[in-house]
Amino acid sequence: MWKPLLAALALTLLCACRGGTTSQPVFHADGNPATLSEWNVISVKGGELTLSGRVVPYDLNSALFSDHAHKLRTVWMPEGQMARYDDRETFAFPVGTIISKTFYYPRGQDGRVLKSEDQTVQKLNAGFDLNAFKLIETRLLVRREAGWVAFPYVWNEAQTEASLKRIGDIKPLTISGPDMAVTQFSYVVPNVNQCAGCHATNATTKKLLPIGPKARHLNRSYDYTSGPQNQLSAWQSLGLLGPISLTGETPKNADWRDDSFPIAQRARAYLDINCSHCHNPNGPADTSGLNLEPDVPMGPALGLCKLPIAAGTGTGGRQFDIVPGAPGKSIFTYRMASTDPAEMMPELSRSLQDEAGVSLIETWIAQMEGDCERG
Amino acid sequence: MTYKTYIAAAVIPLGLLACSAEDGATPTQLSYQDTLQTQLLDAKPGDVITIPAGVHPISRGLSLSVDGVTIRGEGMDKSILSFKGQVAGAEGLLVTANDFTIEDVAIEDAIGDGLKVNEGNNIIIRRVRTEWTNGPSTKNGAYGIYPVQTTNVLMEDNVAIGASDAGLYIGQSKNVIVRRNRAEFNVAGIEIENTIDADVYDNVATNNTGGILVFNMPNLSQEGSHTRVFKNEVYENNTKNFGHKGTPVASIPAGSGIVVNSNDYVEIFDNDIRDHRTANVIVSSVFSTNYSPDNANPEYDPYPEAIYIYDNRFSGGGNSPDGLDLKALKTAMYGMTGSFPDVLWDGFYNEDKSKDVAMRICVNNGDVGVINADGPGGYKAPSKDRSMHDCDLPKLSPVKLSLAE
After folding, report:
1. Which residue of B has its CA nearest to A317?
2. Of B59, B242, B208, the residue nearest B140 (C-alpha)
3. Do A29 and A85 share a structural domain?
4. C-alpha distances in angstroms, A16 versus A10, B154, B313?
5. How far is A349 from chain B (nearest CA, A)?
6. Is residue A198 located within the same domain as residue A299?
7. Which of A12, B32, B142, B156 shows a CA-CA span of 20 to 30 A to B375?
8. Number of domains composing chain A
9. What pTM was estimated for this model as a whole?
10. Residues pairing with A183 in the sheet
């Protein structure tokens, strides 16, 4: 009874993209494959991006801002393997897991890229036409015997292949959009150490971990070819995720762009995915005493009336991380709005300002009550 | 004089090098940063990565995360990593590794911090120069040399110039020796923050806003204590504060020699300290800055306790304090032409704890005076009474650090 159902589900998911190939990804247990195609996770065929067999796309409730880039995320595990569910932490993935994240933009006029909030990743079903999209880079996180390893691959201009750039790269891009003037910027592909800058969420063990595949980020619906389904239940049905009971208790972050959620939930979801990989009690930014994990209560650890420690230029002349009711006096919004590498937050992943994100945090701080009385 | 001559000698060849590098910016030179970053990525424990002589333009922050690596240049005035054109990265070189040594290299004009070591044991930083070459400016990066959350650290014979926060900084660390360094034209010359067991000696700190700082900030992983500051030359740290408002050092008055802020068990002895226009030594609490108990974790102790100042050689200073409150206080207490005594205390203390002599601020330094500025009373009832400070404390044990032997 149960097995045929599972198989049927699996089949529909396997065909998550039109023209999906049946050949499967290749797990390289060691070495640094020079091209993305050696992994056979995604490939370009006939001007379209396609996923290989059993490669499952996924999306997050709220995602890291990366200069308005769109992201196609996928996960693949060796046949018969599954990840172990956890309510709070990154799922424990089996050796052989390959997670990919492809950064791309809709193409605009005159070689520009387009700022658009449209979730084109959901359009995989309709085909991923490379005349419409420009691929920038694909980052892999691969679970090897000794732990996760990061590989940044940069796509060529012809969009036929991506090559390993362990030292990272800088891509000059020009972006514009309906609400954005034509802007030139340096798109920064991280080097392997900078991958760890975010993914080594514990600065003591320095072990890399995926950040997105946590219950609270994945607990949302995804438009599979078979129709919309909650991602956690889909992964479970596919045998990709271990014992889990999907009740109302399963953690779920807000989609910070969805204003039907309360402002505080949206703000905390934003800070979680953009900041807490460093700003947690064991992360690289624990030196600051600022903890932006989603369950930290309101207080100095979350930034409320907190004095900066080593912000340098990043204070912008402001005295506290958050001054309730006064976003214009809060260091948070100054560092988020800045694009100066000496002062901006996050330190990595962007050269542009996330205007909507800044505005969200401004609104959140503006509605807080109280003040930062001096002693 | 000898000192100035040294600076001039160091600067001229640098200028020439910088010009020739720009003139001949060949693709080979530009790709050096790729070569170096690849070496840093591919390093194995035990490797020595050498930085050849020359000015090497670097446009993106460098990073190392492999344990047991040594980075070695040919001299702090020869092997120069120049970050003048840096477009990415919050620091010049970021190290997240144990058993790390860096020596004989310069890191110039980083957009953020110069050299940051974030978590690591057994760190040696030796004969490294971090400098912002256009002189003191708020636009300069925050920290020159910046190990944080490290254990067993030796910082020796370094030069730090122009940082908009601290030239040589060590934070949230354990077992540290900072010796024979030179810090000049930074906001804070040398800063020991939230660190346990530090010996700071044989350093020269001059022309900073504050010479040597021993601080404790709230909300951090550990509170610092047990720092010995001795045999240093600390003089004429009178540069206008160019720090960023909101940062802990932005509240340092120009003309501060040695400053202890909210730290405990600090010993200041056998130093030459002179000619600081605010005061040669300041002992204070974060209450004097932006702090209120609402800003901090409840267990945080804002009072400086068990501070022992003895056998230093003081001269000059205290004649023109920075800031209106202090200026008014000086004039009221000592007249237009008078000066503060060598030790300025902001007056915040825990009355209960201070009943125990062992927790007091003790000054046994000849006839050196102490002024209690009465910070708690809004500077209204300052006092020259130093009877509370006529005491001695048990001496702290020297730091034992095998890396330094």
Report:
1. B245
2. B242
3. yes
4. 10, 56, 78
5. 10
6. no
7. B142
8. 2
9. 0.88
10. A175
